[in-house]
């Protein structure tokens, strides 16, 4: 199985996301690793920094600006109302989640959850895009097999073993989609 990693610039807008499709739909089975859309991680870091500083109103505003950006991405990415609706539901669930963290207590663990949103969103949007085009793929979200160690860092051995176990559930699938932070830790040679 071939691993193909696409950074934030590669998935920076709907046209770039669509341009990935011919690269992954050959004869070979692939694991498609996507980063967050360009600029997203920086925005999520800024939201976290605002929360650490106690600036919840500014964090809320930045969350809503980022949500608006993704609403437009969904409108531009999909051609059918069904997938636009799916995309909007996805976007709202993630940005509502961040909004809930903004109004409740905020910790280092929740910061990691906020930062993970970018890759969780990009992979799901791409999975929906393939589905809209009748291209079969499997989305393996990090939350299915991710674990952190006592220091709050990804447990590389656990992740590698569980990622392999998850992959074994899909031996005949040609396209597996996951997040960059998963494969980086599972295989040790990928970067986000």
Keywords for this structure?
four-stranded parallel β-sheet, 192 residues, alpha/beta, disordered C terminus, 9% strand
Brief summary:
The protein contains seven helices and four strands, in the order βαβααααβαβα. The chain has 192 residues and is of the alpha/beta class. 34% of the residues are buried.
Characterize the structure shown.
There is one protein chain. 60% of the residues lie in helices and 9% in strands. The protein is built from 7 helices and 4 strands. It is α/β, with parallel strands linked by helices and 192 residues long. Residues 182-192 have low confidence and may be disordered. Helix 2 runs antiparallel to helix 5 (108-132). Strand 1, helix 1 and strand 2 (30-34) form a beta-alpha-beta unit. It has a 4-stranded parallel sheet with strand order 1-2-4-3. The longest helix has 25 residues, at 108-132.
